């Protein structure tokens, strides 16, 4: 492995490309970085507002992939969205209709709350540690 290697993207199975784009780019404000027609399929990538690893939105093809929608993490939180302002982004996500499974909590690594995308994937929203008063 070269020292310059970085994790560039993670594939996320979605019911269809357009519903993935609508949620990630519309509700969450991700940037559509690529949408390339490849004939039978499309190469679609989205990137969080602050940059970082991209999501490759992969339209489910067949029953096995359909069954994997929302289950790629085996029921665990498996995707992590880091923010520099937890309260700002938590409120914006609530306004956009994002469903949080819990109230924000403080951990040693920062302020965190678990949420689900409309496809069933569990995520953490993670911000800097909450300032104690």
Structural class, from secondary structure content?
alpha+beta
Instruction: Give the beta-strand count.
Output: 9
- Report the principal-axis shape: globular
Would you identify the CATH H-level superfamily of the largest domain?
2,3-Dihydroxybiphenyl 1,2-Dioxygenase, domain 1
CATH topology of the largest domain: 2,3-Dihydroxybiphenyl 1,2-Dioxygenase, domain 1
Rg estimate, integer Å? 16 Å
Strand content: 35-45%
Helix-strand pattern: EHEEEHEHEEEE
Overall domain count: 2
Distance between the termini: 46 Å
Number of helices: 3
Largest sheet: 5 strands, mixed
Q: Uncertain spans, ≥5 residues at pLDDT below 50?
A: none
Task: Examine the secondary-structure arrangement and name the CATH architecture of the largest domain.
Answer: Roll
Feature tags:
4-stranded mixed beta sheet, 5-stranded mixed beta sheet, 2,3-Dihydroxybiphenyl 1,2-Dioxygenase, domain 1, single chain, 3 helices, alpha+beta, globular, VOC family protein, 20% helix, 133 residues
Topology:
Elements lengths: L8 E6 L2 H11 L3 E7 L4 E6 L6 E6 L3 H6 L8 E6 L3 H10 L3 E2 L4 E3 L2 E7 L5 E6 L6
Parallel strand pairs: 1-4, 5-9
Antiparallel strand pairs: 2-3, 3-4, 6-8, 7-8, 8-9
Summarize the structure in words.
The chain is α+β, with helices and mostly antiparallel strands. It folds into two domains: 1-69, Roll (2,3-Dihydroxybiphenyl 1,2-Dioxygenase, domain 1); 76-133, 2,3-Dihydroxybiphenyl 1,2-Dioxygenase, domain 1 (Roll), CATH 3.10.180. The protein contains three helices and nine strands. The chain has helices at 17-27, 63-68, 86-95; strands at residues 9-14, 31-37, 42-47, 54-59, 77-82, 99-100, 105-107, 110-116, 122-127. Strand 3 (42-47) and strand 4 (54-59) form a beta hairpin. The N and C termini lie far apart (46 Å). This is VOC family protein. It holds the Pfam family Glyoxalase. It comes from Pseudotabrizicola alkalilacus. Residues 6-128 form the VOC domain.
